[in-house]
Amino acid sequence: MFISNLRRQRYASCILLIISIISIEVYADDSTSISKMNLGQVLTQSEIEKYSITIYPDGKHLSKGHGSVAQGRELYNSQCQMCHGEGGIEGPAARLAGTNGWLSFSDPFRILRIKEYPVLLISVGGMWPYATSIYDYIRRAMPHYAPKSLTNNQVYELTAYILYLNELIDENVRLDETSLPSIKMPSHDLSVDAWANYIETAKINESTQNTDH
User: Fold this and answer.
1) CA 81, CA 122: separation in Å to the nearest integer?
2) Using omega within 30 degrees of 0 as the cis cutoff, is the peptide bond preceding 118 cis?
């Protein structure tokens, strides 16, 4: 009985091995035709541009538009204050202004708020190395209940107000696609700039393409 079962197992193993070898040969013979199968659909340049919205530190992909601190304050009070607080530091959502960490001489009650809302431990103004990233995030994700609902001008307005809360620009500043990339964030020098080489390479490639044409 034991020998009979062993023979059956060997026989089944041989059958599986033969089937596997045949499958591999068929796949190898048909690999050329498989590589030519039209899977999916090639996107047009206009379709790619619709989703290629990442804002680069040098301002690439920034939208045309403008916004002032005063306009941003009004918009912030109506759409953002409920989550970020009156001064951008109260929460319960992420803290927008000030330094990172538990303690701050200018904000003695910070540690108590962080105990209740741990996300307040880090700050947009203290952690983000590029001002253009603020625009990028607001445009694609804010407000939470209606992402991508803001106009380009409104995104510039809110970006201006957040930078103002961090004392990085004056109240009379008006931001646009030219002035925003020039603003240096406090954490820039504390960060590894992985974009620098990428931007430089992109500029060289673009220059080469223009020369070829």
Assistant:
1) 18
2) no
Superfamily of domain 59-192: Cytochrome c-like domain (1.10.760.10)
pLDDT in tens, 33-83: 555 667 788 888 888 877 888 899 999 889 999 999 999 999 999 999 999
The pTM of this model reads 0.70
122's tokens: 């880090």
Identify the sign of the CA torsion 174, 151, 83, 128.
negative
The rounded distance, in Å, linking the Cα atoms of 75 and 141 is 16
Beta bridge partners of 57: none
Distance CA 186, CA 46 (A): 36
Q: Which two tokens stand for residue 160?
A: 């201006």
Residue carrying the six token digits 């499958």 = 23
